[in-house]
Design goal:
heterodimer, A: about 750 residues, alpha/beta, Rossmann fold, Dimethylsulfoxide Reductase, domain 2, 4 domains, 7-stranded mixed β-sheet, 6-stranded mixed β-sheet, 24 helices, 27 strands, globular, B: about 250 residues, alpha+beta, Alpha-Beta Plaits, 4-stranded mixed β-sheet, two-stranded antiparallel sheet, about 25% helix
């Protein structure tokens, strides 16, 4: 053993220590970023590991515009909750809103710009850069604009509000194009038209479900998809068991029981499309009984002569005694409210039906009353409601495309190939457009037909703002802010538009660097219109407070005085609905309804929603056709038998579900499944009943009369297993759900332990 | 002391849930069936909060779904007088829970807050508790479930992801209760205030049909609700002494 003195020993120890340190640092330096537990050496300001950070924003899963608070941890979004400060949802949030996280983290998101490399629809795309993509589109737009042929550019977007809508408007105007189309399958065109005609307002009134004691709903599934379902659910709960001692009474009139029908005290099935006639019969009874004392009562008596309860009983199938009872209680129980929508509004007489509903509110004195219908003041901020394109407008657009009048189509989030009937031949019309560009985040059916895909951020990654419609009786706005940094090589829709504007040298009209600046600039104007107190705090502090609260509201309520234009009275009347197909060949009326899980199909790529049982039937992962058990017995069908549902315009195949609360001559199908694209969870699952709808329209608005298709049911002799989560649909005497009368005294649920016919046959 | 009275003392003690003389908190939920619309927002909120996996169509067809809270539906009558009622059912957090007595490894026990809790690390997957539970609210992991990337980025870091062979069920969002207790402690307060904790289902309920709170505070919303004349407990005849109260649906 060599002789080591003290100095050598210290040298060796020193050298050893240095090399160990160097080795450690070398290893650390070579570490993959993901190996670090917390990858931030200097964490961003709003990031502290182990603590949640909440961001307020706006839900974009449906047009209701609920406020959300998103919980993030370590820079990842973990949970969405309703923003308690937002007047629309007040902390509540529906299932689809909760599932917004799976839009953000969806495995099937488009991760960067793509270019179609062979024939359209072949699905062969290659990755390109943003510069290439924007250049390809921008140069094309620039050429068209320079040649004053900007009108050959069309933009088809899902319903968009706030400053993004203004940006679209501005951009298309700079381009010289009139063809900016907002399109949502569920947009209530007929409701807007009826209210416009009755109240002379282009905006929706506020329906005060919170305070009403008697609600008559003509087909409006206000708890699931009618205008603002979370707000209505709040109102329903409050009216039922809220601060008032008197429990609100809810009556639902529709051919197939919806969730709102199940929640109602009384569910009535009028013949499809005759809801308006029923409403006028109620009105007739109110006037003839002398329960309406207005100066114009003689005019009403004349206008309503043809709608006697006796006659209406024949037309609607609702007994005369029921009609008079409803009419009396609508007057006796105050405040009362009548609303209309859903299938009742989607017939050839949709506008007239909803006018008739307004007549009831007028005669009962519900307009401008608490618990009735409150007219919203003129919005003081940005234009709240964008003109939505109706079915007819889209048909005109498709025709223009076929005529070769369209050179470029820009799609934003809208999926018309899925949400338009095959009879519209929209998909075929796309073939005549030389350049189709999609800004969608997902490869949906329409995006699959695009030549160029410039994918945008999801709503949780981008800036935006929203001014909910209908208003809450006072101006409300909310800013939507990014809650996480973008996951992929995508861009905000607004940023794409601004980049295109720069490319076309129209940047002076759209001067913003990015969407954040555009939003901020818009809110500066809102701030400047504010009162002295608002102005005193300075814009930066105003902006921060809006972002922190997630919502901004002014208490100033507008004038909601209303006098009825007398010419309206003489124009009241409801024609019998028209159906496509003869009763002999097509004995059933098809009742397509928006799936509570998927809205108009946009939720079908979310695994949570696919595995969530349908609220009424508990079916998961598929499509089905609902029919009355007695109808099924006649056709010798049981649950799970595959049938063809044939209309004049096509056939879809689905298993039968025996639904106890549907009219015998009506069959119902949920909308939402049946995607041919749209990612692994949605693709090739179930069928889409929109495909076979007849292109009947409501003539005043041009809206698709989606409840006006007659179908035939043809058994195929084959079966398919319906996957359901519930076993028996009956209580069988177990008293799981118990009932009480209004005073809380227990009611026996007699007869509930009998085996139902739905299960005897199955 | 006679042998008999000693035995009776022991028996009474044994009958006390979790052997506690008194709970620290007595977390309770009240569900107003007259307000419930069956919308199932509670289910999705629960899935998001508690890292509940998607089992897929095939497994679901075998009845192997995992839904800590579910909405049951019951039809009554025939067309045109058919009626449909909804009832959300989750773990009832029984104070005399059949599942607790049957577990051979004490993986499920009663905690000091009156919660029926499940220790995943202890569970050996006998599934006896699921057999004994009259409410059918215990769900078994037949597989290690998989999240298609990047869906796993949504997983809540405060909640364990359960592996194969483990039983799971509603916890009344115990991670939120813990967080509220930590906050209360940090603030130098002794107790969690009413309204500081809301499980995910209660928080999201659009019609506010669900309320949650500590039953030991006799003034709060949940205490008012459970003294309502309409209150009842599901399968009360089994003497499970559950902590979830329902308010009867009004049939007017």
């Amino acid at each position: 053993m060599p002789n080591i003195d003290r100095r050598d020993f210290l040298k060796l120890v020193g050298a050893g220590g240095v090399s160990v340190g160097a080795g450690f640092m070398l290893r650390e330096a070579n570490k993959d970023a993901t190996e670090y537990l917390i990858p931030h050496v200097v964490a961003p300001e709003d990031f502290s590991s182990g603590l949640a950070t909440w961001y307020n924003s706006v839900c974009s899963m449906c047009p209701a515009g609920c406020g959300i608070s998103v919980r993030t941890r370590e820079g990842l979004a973990k949970k969405i909750e309703g923003n308690p400060a937002h007047p629309v949802n007040q902390g509540g949030l529906c299932s689809l809103g909760q599932a917004g996280l799976q839009v953000l983290y969806n495995p099937d998101r488009l991760t960067g710009p793509l270019k179609q490399t062979s024939a359209r629809g072949s699905g062969s795309f290659e990755q390109i850069t943003w510069d290439e993509g924007l250049d390809q589109l921008g140069s094309r737009l620039d050429l068209l604009r320079a040649a004053r042929r900007g009108n050959r550019v069309a933009m088809l977007t899902q319903g968009v509000r706030g400053h993004l809508a203004q940006l679209f408007d501005n951009f298309m105007r700079q381009l010289g194009s009139q063809r900016l189309l907002h399109y949502d399958f569920n947009h209530p065109h007929t409701l807007y038209a009826a209210n416009q005609r009755f109240f002379g307002q282009d905006r929706l009134p506020y329906y005060d479900l919170h305070n009403t004691r008697m609600l008559l709903s003509f087909g409006a599934d206000y708890l699931t998809n009618w205008i603002s379902p979370v707000h209505h659910s709040l109102g329903f709960g409050e009216s039922r068991q809220g601060s008032s001692n008197e429990r609100g009474r809810f009556i639902q009139i529709e051919p197939r029981m919806s969730a709102s029908g199940a929640a109602a005290d009384e569910w009535l099935a009028a013949k499809p499309g005759t809801e308006g006639i029923l409403a006028l019969a109620l009105a007739n009874h109110i006037v003839s009984e002398g329960n309406y004392a207005g100066a114009d009562r003689a005019d009403w008596a004349v206008a309503l002569t043809d709608y006697t309860p006796a006659k209406a009983a024949e037309q609607t199938g609702i007994p005369q005694s029921t009609i008079t009872r409803l009419a009396d209680s609508f007057i006796d129980i105050q405040p009362s409210l009548a609303i209309g929508g859903g299938a009742a509004a989607n017939h050839s007489n949709g506008v007239d039906t909803l006018m008739a509903v307004n007549v009831l509110n007028y005669l009962a004195g519900n307009i401008g009353q608490e618990g009735g219908l409150l007219l919203n003041p003129e919005p003081t901020s940005v234009v709240s409601q964008q003109q939505q394109a109706s079915y007819s407008t889209l048909l005109e657009f498709a025709e223009a495309a076929r005529q070769g009048e369209i050179d470029v189509l820009i799609l934003n989030g809208s999926n018309p190939v899925f949400t338009l009937p095959q009879a519209s031949e929209f998909r075929e019309a796309l073939a005549s457009i030389p350049l189709v560009v999609s800004l969608s985040s997902f490869l949906d059916e329409t995006t699959a037909m695009a030549d160029l895909i410039l994918p945008s951020h999801t709503y949780l990654e981008s800036w935006g703002d929203d001014f909910p419609e209908p208003g809450m009786g006072f101006p409300v706005g909310a800013v939507s802010q990014p809650v996480v940094s973008p996951l992929y090589n995508t861009r905000a829709t607004g940023d794409i538009i601004l980049a295109l504007a720069r490319q076309m040298n129209v940047g002076t009209a759209l001067p913003w660097e990015n969407m954040e600046e555009c939003i901020k600039d818009g809110w500066r104007q809102i701030y400047e219109r504010g009162d002295a107190q608002t102005l005193a705090q300075g814009f930066d502090s105003f902006w921060t407070s809006v972002l922190r609260a997630g919502v901004w509201g002014e208490t100033a309520a507008g004038d909601s005085e209303f006098t009825l234009d007398r010419s309206v009275i003489s124009n009241i009347g409801v024609q019998a609905p028209e159906f496509s197909g003869s009763e002999e060949d097509f004995p059933f009326i098809l009742h397509p309804y928006l799936s509570p899980n998927f809205y108009d199909g946009r939720g079908a790529n979310l695994p949570w929603m696919q595995e969530r049982p349908d609220p009424m039937t508990s079916v998961v992962y598929g499509s089905w056709v609902e029919m009355n058990p007695s109808t099924a017995k006649e056709l010798d069908l049981i649950e799970g038998d595959l049938v063809d549902i044939q209309s004049l315009h096509g056939t879809v195949r689905a298993p039968v579900y025996l639904y106890p609360a549907i009219m015998p001559n009506v069959v119902a199908m949920p909308i939402g499944q049946g995607h041919q694209e749209f990612g692994r969870y949605a693709k090739d699952r179930g069928v889409n009943p929109i495909e076979i709808l007849s292109p009947e329209i409501e003539p005043i608005t041009g809206q698709l009369a989606s409840s006006a298709t007659r179908v035939n049911i043809v058994p195929t002799g084959r079966r398919s297993k319906l996957v359901k989560t519930s076993g028996t649909s009956r209580d069988l005497g177990r008293e799981i759900v118990q009932f009480a009368d209004v005073n809380g005294v227990e009611l026996s649920s007699a007869g509930s332990n009998s085996i139902p016919i739905t299960e005897v046959t199955a | 002391m006679s042998l008999f009275s000693r035995f009776m003392d022991g028996w009474r003690k044994y009958r006390k849930p979790g052997y506690y003389d008194e709970f620290d908190y007595h977390w309770t939920m009240a569900i107003d069936l007259d307000k419930c619309t069956g919308c199932q927002a509670c289910m999705t909120a629960c899935q998001a909060e508690n890292n509940i996996p998607i089992v897929g169509e095939e497994e679901l067809a075998r009845g192997r779904e995992i839904q800590w809270i579910r909405v049951e539906r019951y039809w009554e009558g025939e067309y045109p007088n058919a009626k449909l009622s909804f009832i959300p059912i989750m773990c009832q957090h029984c104070d005399s829970a059949p599942c607790e007595t049957v577990c051979p490894v004490s993986a499920t026990y009663h905690n000091q807050d009156g919660l029926n809790t499940q220790i995943y690390n202890r569970c050996i997957g006998t599934r006896s508790c699921a057999v004994y539970c009259p409410y059918e609210v215990r769900y078994f992991n037949y597989y290690d479930h998989h999240w298609d990337s990047p869906l796993e980025q949504q997983l809540n870091p405060d909640v364990t992801v359960r592996g194969k062979g483990v039983m799971e069920k509603c916890t009344f969002c115990i991670q939120r209760i813990r967080e509220a207790k930590d906050h209360a402690k940090d603030d130098g307060r002794r107790r969690v205030q009413d309204g500081e904790v809301q499980p995910a289902c209660v928080q999201t309920c659009p019609s506010k049909a669900l309320v949650f709170g500590d039953r030991k505070d006799s003034e709060n919303e949940v205490s008012v609700a459970i003294n309502d004349p309409r209150k009842y407990r599901v399968l009360d005849e089994l003497n499970t002494d559950s902590s979830v109260f329902y308010l009867k649906k009004v049939d007017a």
